[in-house]
Write a sequence for this structure.
């Protein structure tokens, strides 16, 4: 499973909210908010959502009471401008980041993992055709809903996203390093428990 699964697991262990910008955007799309409809145009094409849309959502989320003890950001920042604004935002809210965790895996492995993901149309529970299949193919174990492959999980769009990652997101790591942010790279090969063990160790020991 991917970073979202690992992030959700880590947030439970440390009892802090899992703040996933992707989930926030999908929620806005499903609710047919103006921001969600703007974001959908980009997501359906496999493009990164513009910074201003993501930042509006994130700013509201980080001011909610449950983030006072801490929080885990998932999928943000993805560009240098986002990282710069995040730094200013955290200072303004009196918060800081203790770790920046980077999961490192080969491109073909990422394509396999993401393209195999299936999501319940009704309750949004996620599965994987290889590592976490449902008991009945195409049917959600939890609510009996229909499992679908999201449009942004198709192989072509995944590869588009990876190209955008190389062009826009990779420079963020260089920015983190230059600004002395606490970056920890983690080998994301292996099964879910092995990867989580490395993540947990990086949080506790670094």
């Amino acid at each position: 499973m991917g970073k979202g699964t690992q992030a959700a697991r880590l947030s439970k262990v440390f009892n802090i909210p899992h703040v996933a910008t992707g989930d926030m955007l999908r929620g806005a799309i499903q609710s047919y908010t103006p921001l969600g409809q703007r974001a959908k145009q980009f997501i359906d094409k496999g493009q990164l959502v513009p910074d201003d849309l993501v930042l509006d959502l994130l700013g509201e989320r980080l001011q909610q009471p449950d983030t006072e003890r801490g929080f885990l950001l998932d999928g943000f920042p993805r560009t240098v401008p986002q990282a710069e604004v995040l730094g200013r935002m955290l200072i303004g809210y009196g918060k800081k980041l203790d770790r920046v965790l980077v999961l490192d895996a080969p491109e073909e492995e990422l394509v396999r993992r993401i393209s195999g993901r299936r999501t319940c149309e009704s309750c949004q529970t996620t599965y994987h055709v290889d590592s976490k299949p449902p008991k009945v193919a195409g049917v959600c174990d939890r609510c009996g809903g229909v499992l679908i492959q999201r449009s942004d999980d198709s192989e072509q769009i995944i590869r588009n996203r990876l190209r955008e990652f190389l062009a826009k997101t990779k420079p963020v790591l260089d920015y983190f390093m230059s600004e002395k942010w606490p970056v920890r790279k983690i080998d994301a090969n292996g099964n879910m428990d092995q990867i989580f063990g490395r993540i947990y160790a990086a949080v506790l020991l670094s």
In short: The beta strands are 18-20, 72-74, 100-104, 117-120, 126-128, 147-148, 183-187. The chain has one domain: 3-105+154-205.
